[in-house]
Amino acid sequence: MSSTESREPRRTALDALHRSLGATMTDFAGWDMPLRYGSEREEHLAVRTRAGLFDLSHMGEITVTGAEAAAFLNHALVGNIASVGVGRARYTMICQADGGILDDLIVYRLDETEAASPTYMVVANASNAQVVLDALTERVAGFDAEVRDDRDAYALLAVQGPESPGILKPLTDADLDGLKYYAGLPGTVAGVPALIARTGYTGEDGFELFVKPEHAVELWQALTKAGEGAGLIPCGLSCRDTLRLEAGMPLYGHELTTSLTPFDAGLGRVVKFEKDGDFVGRTALEAAAERAASAPPRVLVGLVAEGRRVPRAGYPVVAGGQVVGEVTSGAPSPTLGKPIAMAYVDAAHAAPGTPGVGVDIRGSHEPYEVVALPFYKRQK
Question: Phi/psi at 316 (nearest 5 deg)?
């Protein structure tokens, strides 16, 4: 493969369909993905009030099987994967030996295989899929377990929003009412075999559907038809970002990096020191937990603009003429009608309502209100 060919973005099974819908495409983590189909704001508000349909086939699926699959994942990841029941999922992280976050993940425990050994699907962020695969492949040495790259085995469609259960129900044989948040079960959707998961990255109720790539187009079309009366529209990555930002959900490369531990990110709860055996990063994370308990590092907070200027990642947070933090993500919030941001700020300025906090936007100190995350929480 020439260097020119290797830089060609990958295309999902739905690529031609996106283009036929007039999508604005963008290179994201080496994939050609739909950024938007029309108005980002309309797509955002559709998910908040009705439903949106996403192609997330760029996410990285890695299958782990074998008699010691659970013990291996407990060693490789910071969470207690051995305690995850069949048909359930868990949010967790994979860390370096120094405690830095390599990626945040969702791990699904699937049905037992014929050999009755547990099977797990690890879903990594697109930008980190190879890094996670390499780390797991390295860490599996000495365990009776197999790590398999299944990125090409799946297409991933998501239906998100309050109308999503009603759209999906007529199309599936699965018991959606009994499907809890962070659970997944096999079933068919519009006749297509799928893993149906009640997960998402929007702050709304919704489902993620893992299917074979050759079934992606027919499933997209069936969902589109079923959602016509409910106001379902196709949605791109742009509104996915503003939806997750309003919901206070971290994005790797912004709120999560290798220079931060889960405790620095305010997500120490995902680290399970009580589980059996050692795990990669344990010693460093124990020290990070102690530091966070005695003298909190910078705290991840929400910022809401008093004016109209939008903060961007990397902009300094200021108070009293001093830099007290840094913006990690910022965008206009369609739900709040104001610019919002997530930022790491010094603990002394992290309390909601702290006066005198602003963001330095190209030399101008714009006033911002410090608020608790998330900015938006759906009514259940």
Answer: -75, 140
CB within 8 A of 260, min separation 6: which ones?
A: 100, 101
Q: Is the torsion defined by CA of 358, 359, 361, 362 positive or negative? A: positive
Sequence-distant (6+) residues with CB within 8 A of 306 are 366, 367, 368, 369
- Give the tens place of pLDDT for each residue, 106-129: 999 998 655 568 999 999 999 999
Contact assessment for residue 158 and residue 208, using Cβ atoms and an 8 Å cutoff: yes
Each residue's pLDDT tens digit, 305-328: 999 999 999 999 999 999 999 999
Token pair for residue 300? 């991840």
Write out the two tokens for 105: 């993940």
User: What letter does residue 172 receive in the DSSP assignment?
Assistant: B
All residues at 6 or more sequence positions from 222 whose CB lies less than 8 Å from its CB, including other chains: 171, 189, 190, 192
Alpha helices in 59-169 (DSSP H): 69-76, 129-139, 164-168
Average predicted confidence (pLDDT) for the chain: 95
Whether 23 and 15 have beta carbons less than 8 Å apart is answered as no
Angle between helices 129-139 and 69-76 (to 10 degrees): 120
Per-residue b/e over 139-172, b at no fewer than 16 CB within 10 Å?
Answer: bbeebebebbebbeebbbbbbbbbbbbebbeebb
Mean pLDDT of 210-227: 98
Q: What is the pLDDT of residue 4?
A: 43
Query: Which pLDDT belongs to residue 117?
Result: 82
Pairing of strands 89-95, 60-65: unpaired
Provide φ and ψ at 106, rounded to 5°: -115, 130
Instruction: Give the residue carrying structure tokens 């295989």.
Output: 113
CA nearest to 146, candidates 66, 60, 72:
66
Q: Which H or E run includes 188?
A: strand 184-189
